[in-house]
Fold each of these.
Amino acid sequence: MAQTTNKIVADRIHLDSSFVVVFSKLKGMRRFTLDQLRDYELEKGEFYLAYLQRSAAQNREFLEELELEHSDIDELLAKDVRPHCHIRSSGAFVAVNAFNELPKQESGDMEFAHVWVDESKMVCVWDGPLDAFQSLIESFNKRLPPESTAELWARLVLAIAERAESIAEVLQDRIDHLEDVVLKTGDHPWESELAHVRRLATIVRRSMLAFLDALKNFEIENFKWIDRINKRRVREAGDRALRIAEEMSAIRERAEIIHDQIVFKRSEATNRYMLIMAAIAVVFLPLSFITGLLGINVGGIPGSNDPVAFTVVSGFLVLIGLVLFVIVRWFKIF
């Protein structure tokens, strides 16, 4: 039989391997293997968390022994499943996105948590270790163990929402920095960085809206084994997801403002350079015309044989240039 313990140390539970934790008010928390769980009969009031690695060969056999529908088993073991919630008579299959870190690619470095939850069990299937599950395991030692699968599910979705909040804070800091650079110092940051922030905000927003939709579908189902307190906790997770989605929308809008400011500053600088070039042309174009006219190689050019003609013409050109410069400044061309 599995060893009984009143407290499971989170450091001893490794998320890179499958395990089962059975919860009991009388016997506390006990860690089982899948084979040990097969030989164990749950007592009244007991429930368990099964944490399965998707690539493990025995998963399908284990899930079939739980008498789950084949479609639910296929979705639990599928690698890519769109976030959603399927309600059954006894429980629900839920696929949600979860972040371990800030996404770096277009698709986002997201993990998918596929969960089956009913009155007696919560089965989680994963590809890679999730920080949300690590937070869930650590919560067993920081506070009282969950008293039902409803509380276990509520803690999981709250952990996913908390992890997403930390991702949102990173994006908030990055957009704040970009605003400081553009609006305060006037420097132009790399536009690729701004585009990257907008893309990440879009990914997180889309993920949170899908997460919220799955929670709403779960929440409206009136399962008898979900009490009012845990319904409120699941609703709180949904509220956090909605708030994160709104923050991501705000970040995208702020990114648009920053982009518009960059474009405005660039356009303003271009216009200023064009005005300077126009002012220079106003001064030197008449002078170029005069020198070009005097430089034509035909007879009759005034002063061609006068030794002081060049000095007189040069002084006359300087005078014209000064007059044109004063006129340009008077009309505030630049």
Note: The first strand starts at residue 19 and ends at 24.
Amino acid sequence: MASKIFMGNMPELMEKILENLNNEVSSLHSCALVSRHWCKMSIPLLWQDPFSFNRKSSLITNYFSSLCEDEKFFLKKRVINVEFSKTLFDYARFLKVIDLDDLESIVLRWISDIANEFHGILSALKSQKQSLREVKIEYCEYSTEFNVLSKCENLETLRLKICDYSVLNTIDYKISTLEIIDTPIEAKPIESFLKKSGTLLQRLKIEFDYAWEESETLLLNAIKSFCPNLKYLSIIFILFSAELLELIGSLQKLQFLTLMLRDDKMSEEESEIRYKEFVEILPITLQYLDLTNTRQNSYLDVWLNNCSAPLKRLLIDGLDNEKQTQALIEFCKRKRTLNCVGVSKYSELNDIIKKEVEMYVTLVLSEYIVIDC
């Protein structure tokens, strides 16, 4: 397909582009589909081959140097602090919204900010119904155009952030990865979707700022009832309840667990008992545990002294006292499986403590070893 420069209405252009991908998908190297700013800056790049593009071409140089100050500022605010005279090859790095990572399997990733900006684009995905593997939708209201997802039976991953849950109703088949970030969480539609995905679901991430206790109970019971084969579970801002304990204890294939608990009304003594009960029921398959939360870190010694799981990676906030330090060292000696501990407050670690612990395990900044959904 010949290289072209497009200027015009983004939805119309993207509809044509997606409809033609079926025949010449290898022509598409990078594409953005988020906002009007991205649209204007990405369209001239869509049909260029970054690996054969002449670095001294005046075409791209002139294009980026012609951007207005607002558009340059938009890029710089997103840590793309670059000279606007660089070539397409350099700029292709940040065009990741529709991202064909592997052109052999055609893993198509898609994200959008505003529903009005992708009018017509969703329906154009019908030509990609066999190749679409992952969909990421952010800040979108439901539209009937989402019904095209019901045709994408090879979809494996669905990620929703602050979206209308009606999107879940358009998918009648099973997926293996589900991520939902919202505030507050609505348990009922998620429960129905979990029932559909059932035993095939292996990776689940639920993140919210607050929720009614009844909704949490419904959600936890749904995960326990319908998703016994989870290998990855991340629940952010959950109440430390009996239902949570029952769920974790039931997941006998769980390998990765991220847990952030919100404050409750339990006394210190009650919390210590509950934490002890929790670590005692962790499955023996668990290799990764993320406890980077100030409340949880206060009971780190309780976690470690009672944990039997053969952890390989542990993420914590810090080592605040000698009791926690010794608990970590004793865990390393006892299990002999832990090879790395991520510390979110790594810069605050006492040098003496660091030297003492690193005789048994490597300490790094948490973000270096975090595993996301």
Note: The chain is about 35% helix and 15% strand.
Amino acid sequence: MSNQPLIQHSIEIAAPPAAVWAIVSDLRRMGEWSPQCVRMTVLGREVGVGTRTINLNRDGWKRWPTSSRVVVFEPEQTLAFRVPINRTVWTYELEPSASGTVLTESRRAPSGVSRLSNIAVGAALGGTEAFEASLSDGIRRTLERIKAEAEAS
């Protein structure tokens, strides 16, 4: 199976965009939300376009490092970071709604996923179809965790 160019889910959150943005833009806390991310270490103090991160990811007992760079940072609207090793872009988009905020998380592969990443996924993570299904489930779970945090605040 070839890689999906877009994996995306949205959730309605009963909190204003500013509250949701405060959670989403704090990349140091990504490990609290994402079931795949163990830790995201921000290199530098403030997050903005160009900020680099070192990440530790997991799938069960398996662990692997990646890095990323913030490519879009529009407060209370859009945060996106690119993972160079696999050429994917992860995006959080916030849209005001009548009851608060619609938060959308996506994983895009605008120029396809790198061959190296596909080989690693095939050899260690159950293949593309299984891995991307886990990414889709992980996005849903991440959104649910962010919703719970935002609505509890």
Note: The mean pLDDT is 95.
